[in-house]
Design brief:
Number of domains: 1
Strand content: over 45%
Order of helices and strands: EEEEEE
Radius of gyration: 11 Å
Number of strands: 6
Structural class: mainly beta
Number of helices: 0
Shape: globular
Distance between the termini: 6 Å
Helix content: under 10%
Length: 59
């Protein structure tokens, strides 16, 4: 339920999610390019990859 502050992509297959409380999550997609990251609510992120697959990340 912690609000997401920043989502930055350090490379094609890595996303860094920084939270307002200072914690950081690094998500790797095995080199698959990330197409879209959308936040459906405060604690859920939907990551759509270029190959059509979708990853739902809950915080």
């Amino acid at each position: 339920g912690v609000p997401v502050a920043v989502v930055s992509f350090t490379s094609i297959g890595v996303a860094v999610v920084s939270f307002s409380d200072g914690s950081v999550i690094v998500v790797s997609f095995s080199g698959v390019p990330v197409a879209v990251v959308s936040f459906t609510s405060i604690s859920v992120a939907v990551v759509s990859l270029s190959d059509g697959s979708v990853i739902v990340v809950s915080f």
